[in-house]
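Whether sequence alone determines local backbone shape is best considered at the level of individual chains. Part of our work consisted of pairing the sequence of a single chain with a tokenised description of its backbone. This step matters because it turns folding into a mapping between discrete strings. For completeness, the protein is quoted in full, as a sequence line and a line of structure tokens:

_____
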Amino acid sequence: MNTYYESENELNLNKIWQESLEEIAKKVSAISYDVWIKSLEVVDLKNNTLVLSTSSNSGKQTILKNYKDIIAASVNKVHKAIIDVEIIVSSDPEEEEDEQPVVQKTIKPVSKTVESSSFNPKYTFDTFVVGPSNQFVVAAAKSVAENPGASFNPLFIYGGVGLGKTHLLHAIGNYITDSNPKLKVVYAPIDKFTGELTEALRNSKNGIISEFKAKYSTADVLIMDDIQSMIGREATQNEFFNIFNELHEHGKQIVVASDRPVSELKQLAERITSRLAWGILADIGYPELETRIAILNKKAYLERYNVSREVINYIAESVTTNVREMEGMLTRVVFYAKMMGQSVVTMDTAREALKDIAVQNAETIDAGRIIDCVCKFYSIKKEELLGKRRTKEIALARQITMYLITELLSMPLEAVGQIFNKDHSTVIYAKRQIANECKTNRKLAVEINDMKQMLNGK
């Protein structure tokens, strides 16, 4: 670094950059700003050129290709003496070559008991990507894994298809069997539980029913998936009820997962739903764009996929509600590239590979649909939402609308502000305010996820 600059001058550079960010935000979409711009860091000032760093070579190339001129013009507007910008990669270039990830660390094997062997060793807390939408449920799952039976009992995890419920269940099981190998951990989806029960009843004369009961009722930790599948199965519900009571009375940990909250399991016996609500209810919300990008980056890292960040972003923007589907699309484009003899997945290859898939593209949702959705959800009039009234309810709904538009659409912040006759800085504030509030306000986080489902036709 140039030794001319002392601490005061460095602070001035940071101030110039912060003011420049405000200018850049006016000219790019919220998604582009979040993914590419805000993570840039000031490194130096050399020959009237501001040096900025990014974390990867692909990030550098994308910024140089799409945003360098915008960044340079914005910086020059803030400080006339700075006439250009340079983008460098902050990490060791040798490590960034071809962006090949290092070999994944060996995962410690889980306990080899019959009950524990069904846990997928790839599903751990380390491989689960945490974001604002799932921060609470991951914290609850870790608490249960670290102290079975001592914190939340039962732990009830719920969320839509493909959001990571099963991953978390396996992560809990892997953690416990690794750290407490003497504990008996039993895992079963309800369909498996029902099948074992049916077989035991069919062969009850041979004492198999006793073996079935012993397997589940002597567990130190019982983990059950797809609890909603008990609906319409009276014998399954009765047996589950008895096992639940016995385990709970002895302080044994119970973890269950469902594709819907307890309040929507009305077809289950009330004695079961009331017990499921005894502990803590934790939902896995739909991941925000940044979380979706992080999920795909982690999968690419673990699977050693050579995929450009542009392709990662394309897939992340295409699927908003199903992580499993999104990861499947990534696998598909990588396989397609290999079939075509390509070592790197390009955008042209990705578009070709996914052309026959019905993609939930967020760009098919426009600002008008989002505004109508929020108005319907909160029972307020459109003219009130877009007007100047500042009651608490309308102000919150207005901020939520701005947040959803910036999350789901590639629309410049200035354009978003114009819809509400507001400055772009108001949009930035609303986006940050709602994102931060969702981290601690479970009710608001659920409401926003519900609106995303409505917008995606769920």
About this structure: The chain has a mean pLDDT of 80. The chain is about 55% helix and 10% strand. The domain at 289-360 is CATH 1.10.8.60 (Helicase, Ruva Protein; domain 3).
